[in-house]
Write a structure and sequence with these properties.
alpha/beta
């Protein structure tokens, strides 16, 4: 029973207890605990170190703090992306801290007698073993995310499988077990080349992209603002594009899956925005809102993009696409496939910023063929989050006007010579 204070509110102790229960129930917490146990069993078995305190202590550390470490890795990658705008920089931002951690752990284990000396020497020493382990870990995470985006497995399960394979091979490989040692060396090398090679090719395509072709601009556009318009204009000029196709997200796939599992719900409506909130089923270690928790309906975001482009005189060179069935089935991968079908043989470019959503779009496009990225470092103060919080002057006049009419809950919204029915923020033309 929750403790209730004299003011009728739950006490801090009950709130802390609730958070602890959610943390313990979290799939990520259970996965971390399994990872710690797996680390101990594999290395203890392979190296005969069942009673080694250094191995026991580090395995417990992994089991408790792996979810927090994952969050820090994500932040390091995001910081590097925002600073440099290159995929390779972001991947180094994730890779280097993990390499430093693994080097420290393997050095400790070497000094504490966890390893069989001959086994570690057979793979090049503890430093090489740490490098290969890190490369394999990063590669399996990348591969797991690639499969999730294509409907194979889920993020936790794929990460767990990658962890299982990586830990087992690293433990047996560093013990010098024939077959496992060779598999460990090959896995680290191949996944390292895959992880960094794909990113390096993407960066080279960005730097040496040819002119002309069709640009693709994907994102939430929640709402479409001045920086989006600036990016469209600059990409048209700098890449000499024939046209740009903009497609907004519908319900982001992360959210759609969380709604299906009952981890998210729409908690309220405010000024036409749906406000998402987590339920008791939510994973306390998952960031469900990397781009915010307030969303305009996709039909309304599409209308705002069209109105802003028309007002800016860009309607003849920029098209707003809307393929809900395709997006629901295959996400932006499916949208890219549809654009390729409509523009066969055309050179394709992707426009994006360096925030979380922008770099996610970059990764999707990199995985869908030879697409040329056009990246811009976001250094202005324009922010969709600030707009949703009430900031003014960050959108074109027509977008500000429509948002104002929606916030007043007017049954009919008029803008740009067009007329829309307003149903709790959902705009339908022809009212």
């Amino acid at each position: 029973m929750a403790a209730i204070g004299s003011d009728g509110k739950t006490t801090g102790l009950s709130v802390t207890a609730g958070k602890l229960r959610r943390y313990v129930r979290s799939p990520s917490t259970r996965m971390a605990a399994f990872g710690g146990l797996l680390t101990y069993v594999c290395y203890a078995y392979a190296h005969g170190s069942w009673s080694n305190p250094a191995l026991i202590g580090m395995s417990l550390f992994v089991g408790v703090f792996l979810p927090s470490y994952s969050k820090l890795s994500n932040k390091a990658e995001l910081w590097a992306n925002n600073q440099f705008g290159f995929v390779t920089a972001g991947r180094l931002g994730r890779f280097l801290p993990q390499l430093a951690f693994n080097l420290a752990v393997f050095a400790l284990w070497q000094a504490a007698g966890v390893f069989k000396a001959a086994g570690v020497a057979s793979v090049g020493g503890f430093a090489v073993a740490a490098l290969l382990t890190t490369l394999a870990s990063q590669g399996t995470q990348y591969l797991g995310g690639y499969l999730v985006a294509r409907g194979v497995g889920d993020a936790n399960r794929n990460t767990l499988v990658g962890l299982l394979v990586n830990v087992v091979l690293a433990a047996l490989g560093t013990a010098g077990v024939p077959g496992a040692r060779e598999a460990f060396l090959v896995m680290g090398t191949v996944f390292g080349l895959l992880f960094f090679g794909v990113g390096l090719l993407s960066d080279l395509r960005s730097l040496f992209a040819p002119k002309g072709g069709v640009g693709m601009f994907f994102g939430t556009f929640n709402p479409f603002h001045r920086s989006h318009l600036m990016m469209v204009r600059r990409a048209l000029d700098e890449r000499n594009l024939d046209r740009i196709i903009i497609h907004p997200t519908l319900i982001p796939r992360l959210h759609a899956e969380a709604f299906r599992k009952g981890e998210l719900r729409v908690g309220a409506l405010k000024d036409g925005f749906q406000i998402y909130e987590t339920t008791d089923k939510a994973d306390s270690n998952v960031d469900y809102f990397p781009t915010g928790r307030q969303f305009l309906p996709p039909e309304t975001r599409k209308v705002l993009i069209e109105l802003a482009l028309a007002e800016a005189g860009l309607g003849n060179r920029v098209e707003v696409a809307f393929y809900p069935e395709v997006y629901d089935r295959r996400g932006f991968q499916g949208v890219i496939g549809e654009i390729k079908r409509l523009y066969p043989g055309q050179r394709l470019h992707t426009l994006h910023g360096t925030d979380f959503g922008g770099m996610l779009v970059r990764q999707i496009c990199d995985e869908c063929g030879w697409i040329y990225p056009w990246c811009i470092l976001r250094r202005d103060e324009v922010s969709a989050s600030a707009i949703r919080g009430g900031a003014s002057g960050m959108t074109s006049p027509v977008v500000a006007d429509v948002l104002s009419q929606i916030s007043q809950n007017l049954p009919v919204v008029t803008a740009g010579g067009r007329r829309f029915r307003n149903d709790n923020g959902v705009l339908t033309e022809g009212a």
